[in-house]
C-alpha cells in the first residue's frame, strides 16, 4: 500500500474536476507505482471505471490541462501523477519527492497544478454587422 501525498488531495476541490475526472484519477492512483508512474492505456483505465471512450479522453485531457497528470513525450501508455498527488513507498520518499517537486515548480521545471483556463462565453464575442 502506498502513502498518498495529502498536499495535492486537500486542494483538488479547487481544480474544478468533474466526476469522470475524479474517477479516472482514482483508477490511475489505484494502479500507480511508487512515485506516481502509471503504465496503463486509456482503454485499461476506462475499463476500471466504466467510462466511455470519449468521456475518458475528455477526463484525461482535463487532468493533463490542470497538471494533475503529466504525459511524458514519446512514451506510449505512460503517465505520471503529479508529485503532489502521487503515492509513495515510505514517508521519507514522499517528503523528498514533495520537496524536490516544490523546488522544481519554483525553478519552472515542473508545472504546478492549475485551475482550468477561463472559458469565454459566446455572448462576449462581438457579432458582425453587415454594411
Report how far apart the termini are: 69 Å
Please state the average pLDDT score. 87
Helix content, binned percent: 40-55%
Low-confidence stretches: none
Envelope shape = globular
**Radius of gyration, taken over Cα atoms and rounded to an integer in Å:** 17 Å
In short:
The chain is mainly α and 131 residues long. Helix content is 42%, strand content 8%.
Outline the structure in words.
- With about 130 residues, the protein is mainly α.
- It is about 40% helix and about 10% strand.
- The protein is built from 5 helices and 5 strands.
- The strands form 2 sheets. The chain has a 3-stranded antiparallel β-sheet with strand order 2-4-3. Strands 1-5 form a two-stranded antiparallel ribbon.
- Strand 3 and strand 4 form a beta hairpin.
- Helix 2 crosses helix 3, helix 2 crosses helix 4 and helix 3 packs across helix 4.
- The longest helix is centred in the last third of the chain and has 17 residues.
- The radius of gyration is 17 Å and the shape is globular.
- The mean pLDDT is about 85.
Question: Which labels suit this protein?
Answer:
two-stranded antiparallel ribbon; globular; 131 residues; mainly alpha; 3-stranded antiparallel sheet
